Amino acid sequence: MKILAFNVSKTCLKAACAVAALALSACAAEPERLDLLVRGGLVYDGTGSPPRPADVGIAGGQIRFVKKASRVVAARTIDASGLAVAPGFIDAHSHAPEAVERIEGPFIDAQDLSQGVTTIMASPDGGLSPRVMRQLSGMLATKGMGVNHGCYVGHNGIREEVMPEQRRAATPEEIERMAALVREGMEMGCVGLSTGLMYDPGMFATEAEVQTLAAAVKPYGGTYDSHTRDPGFHMVESEREAIELGKAVGIPAKLAHLKATGLTNKGRIGEVITMVEAARAQGFDIVADQYPFDGATVRAVYDLFVLPDGRGDRKVTEAEVRAALADPARRAAVREATEHGVDKGFSWIKAVGYGSMRIVDAPENPDLVGENLELLAKKRGVAPFDLLADLAARNAVRVTLGTIDEADILELIVKPWVMVASDGAYVDAQSLARGYAHPRASGSFTRVLGHYSRDLKLFPLEEAIRKMTGFPAAHLGLADRGRLMPGLAADVVVFDPATVAARATYADPGAFSTGIVAVIVNGKVAFENGKPTGVTAGQFVPRKR
C-alpha cells in the first residue's frame, strides 16, 4: 500500500506539473494589454536622476511599467525616439481657474497643456474660501477640464466670509471661525493655506492671526504659501515674516513667486537666499517658487488708478478714469486714492511704487516700451502721477508692476529649493483687453527647459524637470503625481529637448510653446500636433501623503 500510494502521488505530481507548465506557457503567450505605450524615449523620472532609455506603459489611467517593453499590445503607441519623456509638469501657483465661470464649454486650459503642464494649484495669494472653491471645482467637474487641479485654502477668502468689515484686526472669536474654515478646506483635500498679505483684506491681518490659521493645517500635513506682505518696499522683512511663520508653526512654507522687484530691490535677492538657506540648514522646510520672466503682473495703465469713491480693488473702466482725471475738482482726490489707497486699503502704486513699473506694450508709441515710469517721469520733469495720467490718455499702454533684473533671476533660479510656477492668469480676450495677460502664463515651464537649462546651461535637464515635477509634488503632498513610476497617475509629457522653447511675449502672451510633442493627462492624450485634442481627462487632485 505504501508503494502504491507513492506511485499515485508521483503520478499526481507529474500531472500537476504538466498543468502548471501549460498555464505558464499560456501566460507567457498572453501579451500585456495597454491603453497607451510611449516607446523609445529617454525617460526623466522626476527625481533628478539621470535619464535612461525606457518605454512607458499606461493602462487604466496609471503607469504600468517604465522599462524596455516586451510582449505588449497597446491600443495606441507614441514614438518617442529622440525625445524626452517626463512626468507632467505641476504648476504650484496658478490663477487660470479663476476664468472658469466666463468660459463656455469645457475648460481645456490650452495654455498650460501647450507647455506640458498637467496639474495646477488654484486659490493662491489668499484666494478662495472652501465654499467658493467647492463651487469652482463643481463647475470644472461639470464642464470638464483639460488638466488636473488642486487648491489652497485662501486666507482672504475666508476673512471676507467671517468678518463683515475686514479692514481691521480680527477678534479671537473671528480667528477661531476662520481656523474652522481652514480645517474644512483641508478636509476637502486642499494642500495648505495661502495668504495674500499685500492685498485687501489680508493686509490688515496680524502675524498672530496668520500664524494661528497656518497652525490649523499642521495636523493634515499641509503647507503654508505666502504672497508676502510688502515685497515692493520691505522685501526682506516680508519674506522673513513668512520664513519665521513656517519655523514657528513647524510646517513647510513656500515664498510665492519670489523675486526682487523694482529699482529699490535690484540686486538684493541674495539677502533672501541667505535667510532661506540658514533656515534650511536648521532643518526647516522653507522653499520658493519662481516664474522665469523679468516682469511681474501686467496691467493696462488705466487699471492702476483708484477712484476715491470706490474700494482699491474695485475694477474701474477706462471711461471712468478719464472722466475723473479730466475733472479738476476730482483729480487731486484721485491722486491721493491712487497713491495711498482708500481708507488705507490696497492700491498698486502704494504696493510697489512707480519705480517698479515698466512699459511693456504701447502700440501707438513703441518708443515708450522698456521705460521705467519713475525714471521716465524724472527725464520729463513731471510728477509720476501726471505721467501716469498722460499715459492713460493713450490707447493700449500696458505696464508690468514689478521689473526684475535678470541677474537676480539667475541667482535665484539655480537654487535646488526653488520650483517653477507661472503665477499665470488665463489668457483670453477679456484678460488681454484689461491688460492682465502675461507671457509667464503660457511660457514659464518651456522657458526654463529651453532658455535656462539648454541654452544657458545653468542646470541639467533632469534638474529642470525635477523643479517642475517631483519637487512640487512632494511639497504639495501629491503622492501619486510628479514621477514616472509604476502605480502612479499617468500624467506624462513628451518633448524635444533640442527645440523646446517659450514663444509667449508681452505683445503675444498666449503664444504656444515649441517642442512639446504630446501631453498625457490621466492616461489620455490631451495635447498633440501643436494643439489640444479636446480630451477632458483632468481631475480634482487632493493632498495625499
TrEMBL record:
Domain Amidohydrolase: 408-526
Coiled-coil annotated residue ranges, if any: none
Cited InterPro entries: Amidohydro_3 (IPR013108), D-aminoacylase_insert_dom_sf (IPR023100), Metal-dep_hydrolase_composite (IPR011059), Metal_Hydrolase (IPR032466), Metallo-dep_Hydrolases_sf (IPR050378)
Matching SUPFAM superfamilies: Composite domain of metallo-dependent hydrolases (SSF51338), Metallo-dependent hydrolases (SSF51556)
Signal recorded as keyword: yes
Presence of keyword Signal: yes
Signal peptide (residue range): 1-28
Pfam families cross-referenced by the UniProt entry: Amidohydro_3
Keywords annotated in UniProt: Signal
Protein name listed in UniProt: Amidohydrolase family protein
Source organism per UniProt: Sphingosinicella xenopeptidilytica
